[in-house]
Design brief:
By secondary structure, this protein is of the alpha+beta class. The protein has one domain: Jelly Rolls. 16% of the residues lie in helices and 33% in strands. The chain is built from six helices and 24 strands. Strands 1, 12, 14, 15, 16, 18, 19, 20, 21 and 22 form a ten-stranded antiparallel β-sheet that branches. The longest helix has 15 residues, at 12-26. It is globular and about 85 Å long. Bound molecules: 1-hydroxynaphthalene-2-carboxylic acid. 1-hydroxynaphthalene-2-carboxylic acid is lined by residues 77, 79, 98, 100, 102, 110, 115, 119, 154, 156, 168, 170, 172.
Length: 373
Amino acid sequence: MTLDETPRARTDEDDQLASLYTDLAAVDLYPLWTITRDLLTPTPRPRSVPWLWRARVLTELAERALRLVPVERGGERRVLSLGNPGLAGQPYAAGTLWGAIQCLGPGETAPAHRHTPGAIRFILSGDGVATTVDGDVCDMHPGDLILTPSWNWHDHSSTSDGPMLWFDGLDLPMIEALDAVFFEPYPDVRQPGAEPHNRSEAEAGPGPRFVSGAVRDVLTAEHSPLLVYRWSDTDRELSRLAAESGAPLVSLEYVNPETGASVLPTMSCGMHRFVPGAKTLPVRRTGNSVFVVHRGSGWSVIDGQRFDWSAGDMFVVPSWAAVEHTSGEGADLFSISDTPVLRALGLHRELTLDAAQQVTGVFTPANLDTVSV
Ligand code: 1HN
């Protein structure tokens, strides 16, 4: 109060207002006009931050866990989860996505269970492990993608004499935010595995397993009936696309061969090939992504911060962060993202920027049919 201001006498209205606030608080009501936290931000403000985990660090710690920690009922899985430092100690890579490294030692079985969060595995190293998904024994090899969709029984079993490492991606934080997590252990440690293995591959129709460019999903609860995408097929499709387009970067999305939709209702999986010397312009997209470097090296600038990466590194690009990639020697990057949900709900947006961060293209549901991405 300044000197020339005389204090105003407290009025009856002041008293009524004060008691309004007291009474609102007493019954757990918040008047919108007093909420100081930004609710409607001009653009998304994810709590997760751009972050990278080094392969060297991940594998060294996974190998120590292999020696020291058994895999058995109770613990269920030997998994080191990527904890984004922006998420206050939660074991999540991003607000909607779980990312982790999982390891299984020779002869071990990670017990069978099922849960409503859906999962994917991208194989990093080793051989001789199979994941049995609702009775279908899916053999796993480096570079393969294996699906364990929501509520499908799954266990991992090793017949190998060495350890095996893979990346786990789950929609767990999204399903938790929807208050829809259910979990159930299988009555036995393992499901009976059917012969021959890889039934979903043998039964899959001739439809394309990959799509490049925009996937125009409709809202669907279905997952892909094909549970295994082999690296040899992915590699061949990337080579074909790269030769055809001559572009510095080609991206494909793994899809349901029957419908062309993303592999899971909640998560999409992609593979991105950078030709040697590739440099992309910055892009912003709604939706969180986790990348796993499969091959090669390079760097990404995410909201102004440079992250150098090489094979086995994992990094997070939060929703709406501007990201640009550079690769000298060429590289293949695997990714998971929550875009199917954003697409289905009309929330998918994309901005392309030029080198000076000026907007050069806008992609929203409204111009879905007129803008190519
Ligand atoms: C899970 O079931 C697996 O089956 C891996 O391998 C990671 C993280 C959270 C909850 C369930 C698996 C998981 C998980």
